[in-house]
Design a protein that fits this description.
alpha+beta, 14-stranded antiparallel beta barrel, two-stranded antiparallel ribbon
């Protein structure tokens, strides 16, 4: 235990020291400098939760197979629905009558709903993985696109509409290995520890205009002719969970994305970036680590099982970035993750969350690890809490096997 604590202290110290010397491109700060993880990580998704948040849960030996987990989130949907073309495209997609014209209309509807400046547009991720005993393995591919103010003469400019924004398509890939183990077990409590290490690769296009995006969708511009940036990182996650009341009550602590330094290069096209071919003008991009504390309670009822959890994620980020703001107390709400989850007959589940400063609601069906869930909620896209709440419609589909009880 003492050795594990020493390793944690050394990694945290190295993270602080290297962060001070990182030469990340500040123009894209807040856009591409985020750790890779699925868009939604819930405690009830045992494998994703263990691989990307708290590896100590792998101390609960089991067999989980996930082939695959697919998630897609569309942002600013309430605004986009005012556009007739978008509404018709969404209707056709939900009826599985999908054409390329519908997909283009759907994407452009989301783009035009962003307004000016920073905003999310669309994201999608696919996760393959398995837990065997106390070990977990996962492969994730994640694509998303965001808007930002235009870059003018090497500086952040100003936009008043989607036509004046810059757009940044991004791809992330990662392979994760995680391991968890119980180190203390007695009549009063248990203690589980775990860690995850991943090889992560990031590629993003340099900011493009709305007209360039439209030309790409119309196949008038080949995406590989556009300049890109790409690189790799080897981040580490650590987790500790203490269990009480025969595992019904848990208290946990996490440290995520330690050593989150991407060693990046510039490229003349995204294919070269994926292959690390012909890179130039290297730089280091720092993606911040996050410290969290939380508690959960699951009574483990047989037929209708309501569970609750509460976590303060990003304690260090709040103190570093928001404590000095004028409305520091309100900023605190962006870091609270509170959930009420009701599992009915191990098939139907209902989730109500307070996450990223706003409510979220989800309804899903889950049979032995095969799951479909639809959720809707909000998050903050502005520089201050309450400045720019953005809604998101998310669908998640998981195929595989998981023995819950």
């Amino acid at each position: 235990m003492k050795k594990a604590l020493l390793v944690l202290v050394l990694i945290l110290s190295a993270s602080v020291l290297f962060a001070q010397g990182a030469t990340d491109d500040g123009l894209y700060r807040g856009i591409v400098d985020q750790p890779i993880e699925p868009a939604t990580v819930n405690r009830t998704d045992k494998l994703n939760y263990s691989l990307y948040y708290n590896a100590s849960k792998l101390a609960e030996k089991g067999l989980v197979i996930q082939v695959p987990y697919i998630e897609s989130s569309s942002y600013n949907v309430s605004t986009a629905l005012k556009d007739k073309g978008f509404a018709e495209a969404l209707s056709n997609i939900t009826k599985l009558k999908i054409s390329r014209a519908d997909l283009v209309a759907y994407l452009m509807g989301l783009v035009m709903a962003t307004g000016s400046g920073y905003n999310n547009i669309i994201s999608a991720d696919t996760v393959l993985g398995a837990q065997v005993g106390h070990m977990g393995f996962g492969l994730i591919a994640k694509a998303d696109m965001q808007s930002m103010p235009p870059i003018v003469n090497g500086e952040i400019g100003h936009s008043t509409s989607p036509a004046g924004n810059g757009y940044v398509p991004e791809l992330n890939f990662a392979f994760t290995f995680a391991y968890g183990r119980r180190i203390i077990e007695n009549d009063l409590f248990t203690m589980d520890v775990g860690g995850a290490v991943r090889y992560a690769q990031k590629v993003y296009l340099n900011q493009i205009t709305l007209s360039t995006l439209s030309d790409i969708l119309d196949k008038k511009v080949q995406i590989d002719t556009l300049s890109a940036r790409g690189g790799f990182a080897i981040p580490v996650d650590l987790g500790v969970t203490m269990g009480f009341l025969d595992g019904r009550l848990e208290v946990f602590a996490t440290a995520n994305n330690l050593n989150g330094y991407y060693y990046m290069w510039n490229y003349d096209g995204y294919k070269d970036a994926l292959l690390f071919k012909n890179g130039y003008d290297s730089f280091v991009m720092y993606t911040p680590f996050s410290l969290g504390l939380g508690v959960s309670y699951d009574p483990k009822f047989r037929y209708v099982d309501p569970s609750i959890s509460f976590a303060f994620d990003g304690i260090n980020l709040y103190m570093q970035n928001d404590l000095s703001k004028e409305h520091a107390f309100l900023e605190l709400f962006k870091y609270i993750d509170a959930n009420i989850y009701v599992d009915i007959l191990d098939i139907l589940n209902v989730r109500a969350s307070y996450r990223n400063g706003y409510p979220q609601f989800g309804l899903g069906f889950d049979v032995y690890g095969n799951m479909v869930e639809l959720s809707y909620g909000f998050h903050e896209a502005g520089e201050e809490y309450g400045l720019r709440p953005v809604d998101a419609l998310t669908i998640r589909v998981k195929l595989g096997y998981e023995k819950k009880r």
